[in-house]
Amino acid sequence: MDKRACGVLLADEALSPATARWSPRLSRAADEDPAATPAAGDWVLLAPGDQDGAAWVLTEVLPRRTAVERLGVSGTSHTQVLAANADVVAVVAGMVPDLDLGRVERMLALAWSSGARPVVVLTKADLHPDPGAAISLVAASAAGCDLLAVSAPLDEGLDPLRAWLAEGATIALVGASGVGKSTLLNALLGDDVMATRTLGNEGKGRHTTVTRELHLAPGGGAVLDTPGLRSVGLSADTGLDDVFADVIDLADRCRFNDCAHTVEPGCAVLEAVETGALPRRRLDSWRALQREAAFQARRADARLQAAWTSERKARTRAYRARPTHPQGW
Ligand SMILES: Nc1nc2c(ncn2[C@@H]2O[C@H](COP(=O)(O)OP(=O)(O)O)[C@@H](O)[C@H]2O)c(=O)[nH]1
Ligand SMILES: [Mg+2]
Ligand SMILES: [Zn+2]
């Protein structure tokens, strides 16, 4: 399947699977802005197919209720939608000795800013000698959202996820490769996952071997499996304030409004690090992610500015090129 086509489920026909080719207009829009590319979970409009053999032409992506977006990989400030219209975004991480909290926080920022309900799912609980300790370790990062410990082989801890599915929710799984997303998907949906259908981009370009898939759960709801992400750049508009609400609360209590939390007297953030209430790692992680988001905000501003400038120039050109005596005047 080429880049300009994707799998769809037909709403009018009991969600039977079909293939849709993108309309030329959609292709152009996607070239200009990757966020306009149909993503797994999108609701789209189809028109009857053209003579090229495609049964359907995808003409429009409907507005997204929620979107998990990361910064595009191509070094631009464009964003890429990993999952659309999910009700729950599950940040999946394995209970392994080198569990990367910074990565969890980074993904949680995407989850919070998606507009969906964020959840942290710690997999491989059966491999951990003390799952409770792993949960405590992650608790601060997951403040304000559900934190689940699960084991796929033992079928433990999956009930909350199953309950959301039974309510008809779409759950998007995001996380690094190897954390257990596909295993979780299988545990939630049963062994007939291979028989379920996909909606998403398949074979997006030469370098992409991954698919983003939407799997319908037999009892209702759906699970969106996203590819294992090696890098997830934060776009300018992130949920960092949600992920680091505890640090921000502390910062509100610093003596100086413009406290940089480095050497200032009366700094509540540094005091919390001192007493151990706030792990130093978490402060560093907040700083690093904030710097990144601020940098992207500046880039996004610059891009907007450039777009405005070129639009203004085009308008000026059009104005100059206008007939001196417009007809009808
Ligand atoms: N023991 C154990 N192994 C798991 C669990 N979840 C996943 N795995 C294993 O972790 C490896 C990676 O899982 P996979 O689902 O492919 O990860 P993905 O890349 O995130 O989709 C596989 O060998 C799984 O069998 C779990 O809950 N317990
Ligand atoms: Mg997988
Ligand atoms: Zn301070």
TrEMBL record:
Pfam families: RsgA_GTPase
Cofactor: how and how many bound: Binds 1 zinc ion per subunit.
Protein location: Cytoplasm
Residue sites binding Zn(2+) per the record: C254, C259, H261, C267
Function: One of several proteins that assist in the late maturation steps of the functional core of the 30S ribosomal subunit. Helps release RbfA from mature subunits. May play a role in the assembly of ribosomal proteins into the subunit. Circularly permuted GTPase that catalyzes slow GTP hydrolysis, GTPase activity is stimulated by the 30S ribosomal subunit.
Alphabetical list of NCBIfam families matching this protein: ribosome small subunit-dependent GTPase A
Protein name per its UniProtKB record: Small ribosomal subunit biogenesis GTPase RsgA
Organism in which the protein naturally occurs: Actinotalea lenta
